[in-house]
Amino acid sequence: MEANDISIQVEDREGNISDLTAPTDMGLSLMEFLKASEYDVLATCGGMALCATCCVDVMEGEEKLNEMSDDEYAMLDTLPDLLPNSRLACQLQLNPGMDGLKVRLHAMD
C-alpha cells in the first residue's frame, strides 16, 4: 500500500464485502472510486449532487467525513428510504483521514 492510500470496506447490494485500497492523491471522490472499482453506481448527474444515485450508507467512520453541505442534505432528503448515516458518495473527497471507512451501497428501488 502506498503512503497516500487508504483502506475502504465496501458492501454491495447483495451483501458482499470487499476491502479496497483507494488513492488519496488523485482528487477522486468516493463515487468516482466506486465506479472505477466497477460497483453498480449510476451517478446519473456526474457528481453534482443532483440525483442521489450514488448514495451510500456509512457503516463506520462517519466522524471522519466532511460536514454535509446544504445541497447534499437537500438531495438526500428526497429519498424515501433515507437513513441517518446516508451520504452522497460524489460529495466525499477521498483523503487520508478516511482510512478505515466502511460503506454500504444504498438500496435502489
From TrEMBL:
<feature type="domain" description="2Fe-2S ferredoxin-type">
    <location>
        <begin position="4"/>
        <end position="109"/>
    </location>
</feature>
<dbReference type="InterPro" id="IPR036010">
    <property type="entry name" value="2Fe-2S_ferredoxin-like_sf"/>
</dbReference>
<dbReference type="GO" id="GO:0046872">
    <property type="term" value="F:metal ion binding"/>
</dbReference>
<keyword id="KW-0411">Iron-sulfur</keyword>
<dbReference type="Pfam" id="PF00111">
    <property type="entry name" value="Fer2"/>
</dbReference>
<dbReference type="InterPro" id="IPR001041">
    <property type="entry name" value="2Fe-2S_ferredoxin-type"/>
</dbReference>
<comment type="similarity">
    <text>Belongs to the adrenodoxin/putidaredoxin family.</text>
</comment>
<keyword id="KW-0001">2Fe-2S</keyword>
<dbReference type="GO" id="GO:0009055">
    <property type="term" value="F:electron transfer activity"/>
</dbReference>
<keyword id="KW-0408">Iron</keyword>
<dbReference type="InterPro" id="IPR001055">
    <property type="entry name" value="Adrenodoxin-like"/>
</dbReference>
<protein>
    <submittedName>
        <fullName>Ferredoxin, 2Fe-2S</fullName>
    </submittedName>
</protein>
<keyword id="KW-0479">Metal-binding</keyword>
<dbReference type="GO" id="GO:0051537">
    <property type="term" value="F:2 iron, 2 sulfur cluster binding"/>
</dbReference>
<dbReference type="GO" id="GO:0140647">
    <property type="term" value="P:P450-containing electron transport chain"/>
</dbReference>
<dbReference type="InterPro" id="IPR012675">
    <property type="entry name" value="Beta-grasp_dom_sf"/>
</dbReference>
